[in-house]
Amino acid sequence: MLWRLAVALAILGGLSIAVPASAGDALRIGSKRFTESYVLAGILAATAAGRAEVEHLPGMGNTAILFEALRAGSIDLYPEYLGTIELEILKRPVATGSLEAVNRELAPLGLVASVPFGFNNSYALAVRAETAAALRLDSIGALAAHPGLRFGLSHEFLGRADGWAGLRDRYRLPQRPAGLDHGLAYEALAAGSIDLTDVYSTDAKIGRYGLVVLRDELGYFPRYDALILHRADVPARFPEAWRALERLAGRIDERRMIELNAAAELRGRSFDEIAAAFVAAESGVSGGAGAGAETGAGKGADTGEGKGVDTGRGGLWQALFADDFWRLARQHVALVLVSVLCAVAVGVPAGVAAAFRPRFGAALLAGVGALQTIPSLALLALLISAIGAIGTLPALVALFAYALLPVVRNTCVGVAQVPVALREAASALGLRPGQRILLVDLPIALPTLLAGIRTAAVISVGTATIAAFIGAGGFGERIATGLALNDHRLLLAGALPSAALAFLVEGGFALLERRASRWSRATGR
After folding, report:
1. What is the reported pLDDT for 455?
2. 239: left (phi > 0), else alpha (psi -120 to 50), else beta?
3. 261-313 confidence digits (pLDDT tens)
4. Which of 34, 86, 473, 522 has its CA 20 to 30 A from that of 80?
5. Nearest residue to 371 (alpha-carbon basis) of 456, 453, 447
6. 64 versus 107: which is more confidently predicted?
7. Do the Cβ atoms of 505 and 454 come closer than 8 Å?
8. How confident is the model at residue 7 (pLDDT cuts 50, 70, 90)?
């Protein structure tokens, strides 16, 4: 009863990763996939720690994903910006900057925006200093006279209501921008691959690379005052933690936020270290030296020079086997194991049915094959809306969908290749069709079936890294952070364990297939 065993294992595996997440009432804090959001969410988590059970889900994606997660209750709060709430979330034609008006519209959704941190992080456009000097660029309007400039804009900025489309129309810009990750834009600009990119006004790398921020003479960009967007029931559910979070109001000005970003982007400090140092400085513990070292106060923070450069995380070896290694490994293995077991539980019976019913088989293989053509991030985004949740569940559904095709196809092919004479002999011995499938067809088809499961497992190991972009964890969490910081060491620290796991899966199935082939030949004889 192979399929029943697979179902039981899949249920146990699902419980093993679901139970820890639901144990207790944890304050779940999300963050977007860029440096400042990681830092602010880390500060929120460190501030609430000790006053409530806290779960931080870093780098979950863009505004739309975080907002859907908040509405669905998958997270309780995350750092957001007033201008983004007005223009991107509430779809207002013009930003008013009124927190009271925003909260009136958020109230029917069960959400509240509060606790302004004390700084405005506006969108802006930046160019290299030599480009600005050569073309006499000092404002966005001046760009219209230079259609040959190569624009490289972040994907979110390209799609936002308050992003590229409106800016292009307001200033009548003729350029056709290319999309790239925000974490890579500064290096692309410095290397001369692009001439202009969108920046956040509190980015530490603006000073590092000596960029010129163009003046928004028509006032297109509103104020983006940073604050907490949270579910309305959070203060009642976590009263002590919420009182601590309220004390953050007005505690971070623009200069301090730039210093905090510089600690991560220029000096290689981890987000947890930065958050812990900030909270310690605010509470007066450990004095000013530790806080200053972490937040990067002074000239060294803007240039990346002086003591402390890249000493926080060490080399590749330290990044590979950091404290989060086993947590990420468990999450990654659980995602792969549960999704593949579910694919086996569904795909093997479906493949057997397809082998004996050719018309059904053709339609089934076409359907599961079509699932493979959907880009993984697009499928995850669709599943978040369909399921109304973020994190492990949509990630498992997506991985299950990608694992189905090799399991169904190989089961169908293996069972179809069983000699007719063996089936007739089994029937002559009095075996019913179900008994014959279990005792004759599947054992003989086992090597081919295992090859399909092997392919599904290896595909799932690689695809599971994408799950981190919606807060499902795994080694992709390091990759997402590495992209946000353009940190090659972190990228390798996520990619190498994932590749090693794929090799282990491949090698384990190769040994299993060898044994299964010998057993299958014996069964056939």
Report:
1. 92
2. alpha
3. 999 888 888 888 999 999 999 886 544 333 443 444 333 334 333 333 233 44
4. 473
5. 456
6. 107
7. yes
8. very low
Element of type H or E holding 78: strand 77-81
Domain boundaries, the chain: 24-120+224-314, 123-213, 325-524
Strands (E), 152-203: 152-154, 178-180, 196-200
Q: How far apart are CA 178 and CA 201, in angstroms?
A: 21
Distance (Å, rounded) from C-alpha 32 to C-alpha 130? 32
The architecture (CATH level 2) of 24-120+224-314 comes to: 3-Layer(aba) Sandwich (3.40)
Average pLDDT of every residue of the chain: 83
Query: Do 24-120+224-314 and 325-524 agree at the fold level?
Result: no
Query: Which of 176, 63, 182, 58 is closest to 124 using CA atoms?
Result: 182
CB 76, CB 49: distance < 8 Å: no
Instruction: Return the CATH class of domain 325-524.
Output: mainly alpha
CA–CA dist 227, 249 (Å, integer): 8
Q: Are 404 and 374 in contact (CB under 8 A)?
A: no
Q: How large is the greatest C-alpha to C-alpha distance in the chain, in angstroms?
A: 91
CATH homologous superfamily of 123-213: Osmoprotection protein (prox); domain 2 (3.40.190.120)
What b/e readout covers 510-520, taking b as 16+ CB neighbours within 10 angstroms?
eeebeebeeeb
Q: Is 196 exposed, middle or buried (0-12, 13-18, 19+ CB in 10 A)?
A: buried
> How many CA atoms does the CB half-sphere of 230 hold within 13 Å?
23
Three-state DSSP at 213 gives strand
Indicate the pairing of strand 27-30 with strand 54-57.
Answer: parallel
